[in-house]
Design brief:
Elements (H helix, E strand, L loop, with lengths): L25 H13 L4 H18 L4 H16 L3 H9 L1
Helix pairs in contact: 1-2, 1-3, 2-3, 3-4
């Protein structure tokens, strides 16, 4: 009886590695979390910072999760500030 359980040492393994191009953009992620940290203490600065997330995403040429999350946070801030027009503008974007 063999210790290799019938495994031939010359077999090709089909390993599916993720493409590194699909990794989230670190700049977008960092900008998002920095913005979120400002949300409670300085909502106006947080909004401006979230707008930078949107600008970075636009620069990359495609919409993604970080821009969506930034818009969602902006909507929450505008709602809390009772600025419903700006909240709806974020919703429509």
């Amino acid at each position: 009886m063999s210790d290799d359980d019938g495994m031939d040492g010359n077999e090709d393994f089909d390993l599916d590695y993720e493409n590194t191009d699909e990794e989230p953009d670190a700049d977008l992620e960092n900008q998002y979390y920095n913005s979120k940290a400002l949300k409670e203490d300085d909502p106006f600065a947080a909004i401006e910072s979230f707008k930078k997330v949107l600008a970075l995403e636009q620069k990359s040429g495609e919409k993604g999760d970080w821009g969506f999350k930034a818009l969602k946070q902006m909507m929450k801030i505008y709602f809390k500030m009772e600025n419903y027009d700006e909240m709806l503008a974020c919703y429509k974007e």
